[in-house]
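Hello again,

I reread your note about wanting to compare the complex against the isolated chains. To keep things tidy I'm splitting this into two emails, and this first one only covers the full assembly. Below are the input lines as submitted, including protein chains and any nucleic acid or small-molecule components. They are followed by the predicted structure of everything together. The single-chain runs will come separately.
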Amino acid sequence: MPMSKLKESLDFPRPLTTVDGVVFAIRDDALHVLLVQRAAGEGEPFPGSWALPGGFVDTVRDNSLEACAIRKLKEKTGVVSPYLEQLGSWGSATRDPRGWSATHAYFALLPAVPTRDQHAADAEWFAVTAGRVKPKLAFDHGDILQAAIQRLRSKVEYTSLPAYLMPQEFTLPDLQRVYEIVLDRVLEKSAFRARMLAADLIEPLARMRKGPNRPAQLYRLKKAKSPVYFARTFNPPG
Amino acid sequence: MPMSKLKESLDFPRPLTTVDGVVFAIRDDALHVLLVQRAAGEGEPFPGSWALPGGFVDTVRDNSLEACAIRKLKEKTGVVSPYLEQLGSWGSATRDPRGWSATHAYFALLPAVPTRDQHAADAEWFAVTAGRVKPKLAFDHGDILQAAIQRLRSKVEYTSLPAYLMPQEFTLPDLQRVYEIVLDRVLEKSAFRARMLAADLIEPLARMRKGPNRPAQLYRLKKAKSPVYFARTFNPPG
DNA sequence: TGAATAGTGTCTTTCAGACAGTATTGG
DNA sequence: CCAATACTGTCTGAAAGACACTATTCA
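Full-complex prediction:
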């Protein structure tokens, strides 16, 4: 058997390659993340544990990592085009009992959905409280979720990312509430409004949201807006 | 042959798994990146092209992706513990002619080194001018380099990352110069100094840097400092 | 003394924080 | 009218920009 340098490289045992998604949405006034329960089949790692939705890259069906992430998301949630961003990759000899494995983690934001669910039967939304989720997750998915929450929090300080968590029509108090939910602290109303309106991110609709009190202006996202970066963070608590 | 769900998953054809590094340093008053020239062996993709240093994950020697990145860096540059951060991953069916491949890209900052080189013979420093490097790179390494430059620029706006590009001892004008090189625009001296001194990032030494004019205070990084995040960016040019 | 670079001070601008005050609905 | 929430205005403070000014060296 010839051992050219090339042959050697390609003969390396190859790590398992997977993609996982951290899908966030606001439900019932709290940040939630979508998890799936692992099958209990023979030889399955972490049977019955909750895990991030994901799976093996399929070199036939998936043309790229992102395509794979989109496919997995669609299979698990039925959602087509949410905000999707790469979070990072986690790879080691020990993270999967089946062998050396590397996962590519993506991070998705879904608009708030009405209480009727649109996710698959084996998937469930879990509230993120105090930066954690109740069940212990399979693999190193707890670490990945931690990183995703941190990234979300950090970006919310200085970007318009929460806009992707909003339904099509929303009011400025709604949007502020979502910022506050993610950051877990209250923000100043007037500064918040000034920043959002200056960002050229949203546009008012002709209609108002009626309620038991003064109606609020409805807005929607401007078309095809990628996230806006602000020059300052909201003043951190310290 | 039994085809349990598990068996099916593990029987997926596995993508090639590699790690690549984007190594930055300041040399001759300009941002440089370290590239290696690809071998010209038979069947080698992109023979003779310049590429980012990297290679296949070795499931025996490498316990994790980061360990692999550190090993590759050491092999190519001889450097042990620079600033290392994951940049992202790139994977697709077409990026490597040898098959479906995914690379995990890391991003490293080296302190400015004296002109005598410490890199391997087949590696060379290339100046980054106008956000580009002269040679056309192998694979999608041009894209990866672009992303790395963008990440570096973006972070330099609001973090103390350039501190990792400095030699052990440096003056505030030196540090400002490095910020200016990376951002490719001049900064205000007094605002820059105020920000850096307020960041509790550096400490003065007893000595001064002598020159043909007024001596400058020498500083060094405080011990074990992870990067500092500022609450504002430097005011962007627009 | 003058050139050159290091470093400080001062005024202005910008924008967030605080918070009071006004507006508009339903009951 | 009152409660409740939407929205605006005004003052203050922190930090950056602009830029002039002083400080310290060598030639």
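For quick reference: The interface with chain B takes residues 4-6, 9-10, 12-17, 39, 41-44, 55-60, 62-65, 86, 88-94, 98-100, 102, 104, 231-233, 235-236 of chain A (CB under 8 Å).

B.
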